[in-house]
Write a structure and sequence with these properties.
The complex is a heterodimer of chains A (75) and B (182).
Chain A (H helix, E strand, L loop, with lengths): L2 H4 L16 H16 L6 H30 L1
Chain B lengths: L11 H10 L3 H5 L3 H22 L10 H7 L4 H18 L13 H17 L7 H28 L18 H5 L1
Helix pairs in contact in B: 1-7, 3-7, 4-7
Classes of the chains: A mainly alpha (75), B mainly alpha (182).
Chain lengths: 75, 182
């Protein structure tokens, strides 16, 4: 795919578990904007972003595990 | 936060318009340029990452209006995406196999939409699952993030806040070096 086609033609994604990893950059960008708006001190921004990222990713993993276990038990 | 009484109160409507048009510009207007630049870069990265995944039809006014409502909240990014998609629809309207769109709600509309889908698929720009979900999630979330930034800019304007908030004191209640200098 050429750079000109990059923003015109869609890329081909498969509905597999690896596609779920695309949620990580989205979480990172959401965290950056949220903490940029909310933080009192820009000096602490990287640390606060890392903390919130850890919370979000940890929460998503726990949620996924919980749903997986629930699904397994009910199946 | 500091309230600078020597400067006039910020204009909330202007902050809202700037924050919508160019994400982060509302914060630059309020004297927070570093935050404004970070917001602009992060929202631009989020939106254009989505377009890179989904292509030109990611912003689709005709068939994905709820997503479009979120995407247009990114201001200039959403407008550029909308105009690029409108170019595709103009080209389709001049195509003899598709033609101009009939009014919404008419029986010909569904037939026209299926012709559009077939033509887009033939051109290789039609979106399919899960690509559409990823692309529209990125672009839609970019718009919702900018909505949060617009809200923050308006609230800061209504509170009369200019510039960065005062640096917080240390854990033991010590003043920061900047505060010692004052």
């Amino acid at each position: 795919m050429t750079p000109a086609e990059l923003l015109v033609n869609p890329v081909s994604l498969n509905a597999d578990v690896w596609t779920l990893l695309l949620v990580l950059p989205l979480c990172a960008l959401v965290t950056v904007v949220y903490k940029t708006v909310r933080t009192k001190s820009l000096r602490r921004l990287p640390l606060e972003i890392a903390g919130v990222m850890a919370y979000i990713v940890g929460g998503l993993v726990l949620l996924g595990l919980g749903l997986y276990l629930t699904h397994s038990l009910l199946a | 936060m500091k309230t600078d009484t020597s400067k006039p109160r910020p204009i909330a409507v202007l902050a809202l318009l700037l924050a919508w048009l160019a994400p982060g510009a509302g914060h630059v207007y309020l004297g927070r340029p570093i935050r404004g630049v970070i917001i602009f870069l992060a929202i631009a990265a989020t939106f254009w990452s989505g377009v890179a995944v989904g292509g030109v039809m990611t912003v689709d006014y005709h068939s994905e209006r709820w997503w479009f409502a979120a995407q247009i909240l990114t201001g200039v990014h959403g407008i550029v995406g909308w105009r690029r998609q409108a170019t595709v629809y103009r080209r389709l309207a001049s195509d003899s196999q598709v033609g101009p769109p009939p009014p919404a709600g008419t029986p010909d509309r569904a037939d026209w939409e299926s012709r559009v889908d077939r033509k887009l698929a033939a051109d290789g720009v039609a979106l399919a699952c899960p690509t559409d979900t990823v692309a529209r999630a990125y672009t839609g979330v970019a718009g919702l993030l900018n909505l949060m930034c617009m809200f923050d800019a308006v609230m800061l304007s209504l509170l009369g806040e200019w510039g960065e908030p005062a640096a917080p004191e240390g854990k033991a209640g010590r003043k920061t070096p900047q505060e010692d200098e004052r």
